């Protein structure tokens, strides 16, 4: 599928923002596939700092980067804004010494497009809830001399982990918790709040950051059902074909034909908007386009109407 102009621009900006950028499964500190882990190990040996993008967190980006680079697998390494290759190529270049030379030759790139929320090097304002503070305290008991770190990359993906302090770190103490940031993360962190939320099967940290740019948010079918049952105000748009709608449809969904597009255009930019299709791919593309057009509260129904059928058996599957 050809890249949309919005996604291509997003990828263009990403590969130009950092000298060394790795699209991978997981993160530098928590790789989620063996191939990504191998490249991380090599980069950790050769360079003190580099950026990673977790493709598992964004299906559109995961598929789009393969089209963008004409390379079918993940991880993918970019240096100096240029595509280098995947795991096998990186390993070969490392063994020959070529990778070390390339890392040394790559010059500085442009500043990230996202403006920092605070001056680089200044301490951000951070709020830590009581439940998060308690969770951090328990984790610190096993951390030894390592410090709690929060990294926020240019795509506003977050990593909380324990590691030694580094030169140039910025630290903040709040509610009995001290958090260390590198300078760029600190600039993106001003005003964030960190909470710990108990969930069935285990809890997790929830971070809210007022500096985040608008992005498409995933929505499960059961969450959409709760919105309907709770009579929550939102707009639902169906991006499928007319033939598909004749087979199955969600009654309150507006067909995104000419009339639907006019309705969408008339909505306030902060309106809660949900897009759906058959399985969630076409609707994600429509949702990305809505975000690019300035809408700030946009959701994609994950699994599409096929997933909704498990909530509402009156809607046939096809």
Write up this protein.
The chain is an alpha/beta fold and 318 residues long. It has 3 domains: 101 residues, Glutaredoxin (3-Layer(aba) Sandwich); 83 residues, Hypothetical Protein Aq_1857, Chain: A; 95 residues, Oxidized Rhodanese, domain 1 (3-Layer(aba) Sandwich). 36% of the residues lie in helices and 22% in strands. The chain has 12 helices and 16 strands. The strands form 5 sheets. It has a 5-stranded parallel sheet. Strand 10 and strand 11 form a beta hairpin. Helix 2 runs parallel beside helix 4. The protein is globular. About 3% of the residues have low confidence.
Quick overview of this protein structure:
The chain is an alpha/beta fold and 318 residues long. The chain has helices at 5-17, 34-46, 59-69, 87-96, 98-105, 130-140, 183-188, 221-229, 242-247, 258-266, 281-292, 304-311; strands at residues 20-24, 51-54, 76-79, 82-85, 126-128, 147-152, 158-163, 170-174, 177-181, 192-197, 204-208, 217-219, 235-238, 254-255, 273-276, 298-301. The strands form 5 sheets. Strands 12-16-15-13-14 form a 5-stranded parallel sheet.
Compile the SSE list and pairings:
Layout: H1 5-17, E1 20-24, H2 34-46, E2 51-54, H3 59-69, E3 76-79, E4 82-85, H4 87-96, H5 98-105, E5 126-128, H6 130-140, E6 147-152, E7 158-163, E8 170-174, E9 177-181, H7 183-188, E10 192-197, E11 204-208, E12 217-219, H8 221-229, E13 235-238, H9 242-247, E14 254-255, H10 258-266, E15 273-276, H11 281-292, E16 298-301, H12 304-311
Parallel strand pairs: 1-2, 5-10, 12-16, 13-14, 13-15, 15-16
Antiparallel strand pairs: 1-3, 3-4, 6-7, 8-9, 10-11
């Amino acid at each position: 599928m050809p890249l949309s102009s919005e996604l291509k621009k997003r990828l263009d900006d990403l590969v130009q923002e950092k000298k060394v950028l790795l699209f991978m499964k997981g993160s530098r500190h928590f790789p989620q596939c063996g191939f990504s882990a191998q490249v991380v190990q090599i980069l950790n040996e050769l360079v003190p700092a580099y950026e990673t993008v977790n493709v598992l967190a964004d299906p559109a980006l995961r598929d789009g980067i393969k089209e963008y680079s004409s390379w079918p697998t993940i991880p993918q390494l970019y240096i100096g804004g240029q595509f280098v290759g995947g795991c096998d190529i990186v390993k070969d270049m490392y063994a020959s010494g070529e990778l070390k030379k390339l890392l040394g030759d790559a010059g500085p790139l442009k500043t990230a497009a996202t403006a920092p929320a605070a001056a680089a090097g200044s301490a951000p304002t951070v709020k830590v809830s009581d439940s998060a503070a308690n969770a951090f305290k328990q984790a610190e008991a096993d951390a030894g001399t390592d410090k709690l770190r929060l990294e926020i990359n240019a795509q506003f993906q977050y990593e909380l982990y324990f590691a030694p302090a580094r030169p140039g770190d910025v630290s903040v103490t709040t509610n009995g918790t001290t958090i260390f940031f590198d300078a760029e993360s600190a600039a993106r962190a001003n005003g964030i709040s960190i909470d710990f939320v108990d969930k069935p099967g285990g809890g997790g940290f929830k971070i809210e950051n007022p500096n985040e740019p608008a992005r498409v948010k995933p929505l499960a079918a059961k969450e959409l059902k709760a919105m309907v049952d709770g009579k929550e105000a939102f707009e639902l748009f169906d991006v499928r074909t007319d033939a598909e709608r004749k087979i199955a449809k969600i009654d309150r969904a507006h067909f995104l034909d000419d009339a639907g597009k006019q309705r969408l255009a008339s909505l306030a930019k902060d309106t809660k908007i949900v897009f759906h299709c058959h399985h969630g791919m076409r609707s994600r593309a429509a949702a990305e386009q809505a975000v690019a057009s300035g809408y700030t509260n946009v959701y994609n129904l994950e699994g599409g109407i096929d997933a909704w059928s498990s909530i509402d058996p009156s809607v046939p599957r096809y």
